[in-house]
């Protein structure tokens, strides 16, 4: 009886194993069919909604960074131009400062001559001589002191000089071309304060101008008169 029971148990187990094996085989075939029918390209190439969102965000960030970079480049260019402009202004101010220093030193040196008979009027220093020399020697005296014979530019200066009661050489001559009067700085005389009948070039050799109470007159350059030097301080 025990043998019969054992045989039934073995047969039952064998049939169970066969059944399990068949079920596994069916599952394998079904899995294979699913894999064969699946379109991997569609799954791989079709972007998912999350991927599309991240892509848009990256593109937006890239555009923002590009805009920021361009703005920074523009700011750098503007700052560079401002810097260069400030450098030019600084250079100009430095040149002006140096020029003012030179003018200050020149003025201090010029003012030091006041004790030697120089007087100040408007923007110039004047020296009125007490001795007499010809026109060329009178001018040499002035140029050796950083000045020149006086150039009379306006009526105020004319009145200032005319107040003296003597006659003086001024920085005016037509020695180069007869009748073409020039100041010692090379400029042409455009208007003057000639006395009545002057200039008359008496005897044809009156090429230098002098001033007296009635105005200007032409005289021979070798005649001896007092003279007036002028040194311009402020132009």
Topology of helices and strands:
Layout: H1 2-37, H2 40-45, H3 49-111, E1 118-121, E2 124-128, H4 135-143, E3 148-149, H5 155-162, E4 168-173, E5 182-183, E6 208-212, E7 215-219, E8 226-232
Parallel strand pairs: 4-8
Antiparallel strand pairs: 1-2, 2-8, 3-8, 4-5, 4-6, 6-7
Would you mind describing this structure in some detail?
Strands 1, 2, 3, 4, 5, 6, 7 and 8 form an eight-stranded mixed beta sheet that branches. With 235 residues, the protein is an alpha+beta fold. The N and C termini lie far apart (148 Å). 52% of the residues lie in helices and 15% in strands. The protein is built from five helices and eight strands, in the order H-H-H-E-E-H-E-H-E-E-E-E-E. Strand 6 (208-212) and strand 7 (215-219) form a beta hairpin. It folds into three domains: 2-45; 58-116; 119-232, Mannose-Binding Protein A, Chain A (Roll), CATH 3.10.100.
Relative helix content? 40-55%
CATH class categorisation of the largest domain: Alpha Beta
Termini separation? 148 Å
**What coarse outline follows from CA principal-axis ratios?**
rod-shaped
The number of strands is 8
């Amino acid at each position: 009886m025990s043998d019969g029971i054992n045989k039934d148990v073995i047969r039952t187990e064998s049939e169970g194993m066969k059944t399990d094996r068949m079920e596994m085989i069916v599952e394998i075939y079904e899995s294979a069919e699913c894999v064969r029918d699946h379109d991997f390209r569609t799954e791989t190439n079709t972007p998912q909604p999350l991927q599309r969102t991240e892509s848009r965000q990256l593109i937006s960030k890239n555009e923002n960074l590009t805009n920021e970079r361009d703005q920074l480049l523009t700011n750098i260019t503007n700052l560079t131009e401002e810097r260069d402009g400030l450098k030019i202004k600084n250079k100009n101010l430095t040149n002006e400062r140096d020029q003012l220093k030179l003018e200050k030193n020149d003025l201090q040196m010029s003012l030091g001559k006041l004790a030697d008979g120089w007087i100040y009027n408007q923007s110039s220093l004047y020296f009125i001589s007490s001795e007499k020399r010809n026109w060329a020697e009178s001018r040499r005296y002035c140029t050796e002191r950083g000045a020149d014979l006086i150039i009379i530019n306006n009526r105020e200066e004319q009145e200032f000089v005319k107040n003296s009661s003597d006659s003086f050489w001024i920085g005016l001559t037509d020695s180069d071309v007869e009748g073409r009067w020039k100041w010692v700085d090379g400029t042409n005389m455009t208007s003057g304060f000639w006395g009545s009948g002057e200039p008359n070039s008496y005897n044809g050799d009156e090429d230098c101008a002098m001033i007296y109470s009635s105005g200007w007159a032409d005289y021979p350059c070798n005649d001896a008169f007092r003279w007036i030097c002028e040194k311009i301080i402020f132009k």
